[in-house]
User: Fold this.
Amino acid sequence: DQQVKQNSPSLSVQEGRISILNCDYTNSMFDYFLWYKKYPAEGPTFLISISSIKDKNEDGRFTVFLNKSAKHLSLHIVPSQPGDSAVYFCAASAQGGSEKLVFGKGTKLTVNP
Amino acid sequence: DTEVTQTPKHLVMGMTNKKSLKCEQHMGHRAMYWYKQKAKKPPELMFVYSYEKLSINESVPSRFSPECPNSSLLNLHLHALQPEDSALYLCASSQTPHEQYFGPGTRLTVT
Assistant:
């Protein structure tokens, strides 16, 4: 039973345009959400996070939106750059300071020059 | 220094071998983790150490044995592995419960 779902295995966008990566979750106990970026043959790199008490968090070109009622979050990258091409994982953790992250299956983003 | 280092980068071992994976962080993080990642799959948590004590074991087979000698080091001892254990093994560390910083991983092949 997948608690964190990324339903798009891949996404292709043009350089300079917006990339929107989506993530849905089923566990209402999740209260912290993160996005990681992973290049081939490297470990995941922490990108941005959001607590359930917020609905938006911004860091440079990256913005994460959280819709708790829909149990949905999205990562917006504006403007997209070829160097953003990677696999993006959504992850969530539950209340109580749990150290366990639950990851989605990932979305492979390709930014075309 | 925001780096988590892992050695070796690649490891090939037979099913009767004993080997160890090593992980090091110098960020003063209180928690360290082992994950396993198969191709085209998300990382799967194996073990969590918090303040050098094992706090989570995700029902991992005993052929995988973690060890945390001190707050900066984490080992994963491997013995009698199966070919299906071939994967990328990732180490991570964190200070808060949530934001984990990953190492580059060890690519393990069991023959």
In short: The mean pLDDT of chain B is 93. The interface with chain A takes residues 4, 6, 31, 33, 40-45, 48, 50, 55-56, 90-92, 94, 97-105, 107 of chain B (CB under 8 Å).
